[in-house]
Amino acid sequence: MNTMLRKSVLGIAGLAFTGGVFAGPIAAHADAAPVHSTKPVAVSVQGAQSKIDLNDEQTANAKAIIAATKKAGLPERAAVISIATSLQESKLENLGHLGDRNDHDSLGLFQQRPSSGWGTPEQITNPEYSTLAFLKGLKQVDGWQDMPLTEAAQTVQVSAYPDAYAQWEQQAADIVAHNWNS
């Protein structure tokens, strides 16, 4: 690998680590008063959309994200951002250690990293905990309610693929619309 490419890769990795350290919530469980939103579930779907068929486990994980969002007192839009993020990061599968296929020590629905302060491996492979941790990070993003989904998700996740979250917005909005009141 040439020196410039190596420096670029290391710089991106350093930014991702730093972002995770500062944005990675340590205490995800905070009681909050319910928030009611008048905003539509999908604010503005951007670009080509992806869709996958969900199995029972993936559907249960989506429902767990919705339940945790309600527990945090956040509106449907937060659930849409959370589910779209999980669709991108893990296809709504609660991933454990993947060996050589794993991105560092990333685990769970959101591919959160214990080394970045998101919690222990046991915590971040718990769907409720990992969702509350993600939502805690989302609440720290000024104006997240009004920004494009991919920008809100990227600000929390600090991904090497910052625009990838947008492709899941419609499916995430459909999942939330179908399950929010059930």
Mean pLDDT metric: 80
Distance between the termini: 52 Å
Low confidence ranges: 1-40
Specify Rg, calculated over alpha carbons.
16 Å
Order of helices and strands: HHHHHHH
Shape: globular
Main β-sheet: number of strands, strand sense, barrel status?
none
Give a verbal description of the structure.
The protein is mostly helical. Helix content is 49%, strand content 0%. It has seven helices and no strands. α2 (56-71) packs across α5 (127-139), α3 crosses α6 (149-157) and α3 packs across α7. The protein is globular, with a radius of gyration of 16 Å.
Key phrases:
182 residues, mainly alpha, 7 helices, globular
Summarize the structure.
This protein is mostly helical. The chain has helices at residues 3-23, 56-71, 76-90, 121-124, 127-139, 149-157, 169-179.
Secondary-structure blueprint of this entry?
Layout: H1 3-23, H2 56-71, H3 76-90, H4 121-124, H5 127-139, H6 149-157, H7 169-179
Helix pairs in contact: 2-3, 2-5, 3-6, 3-7
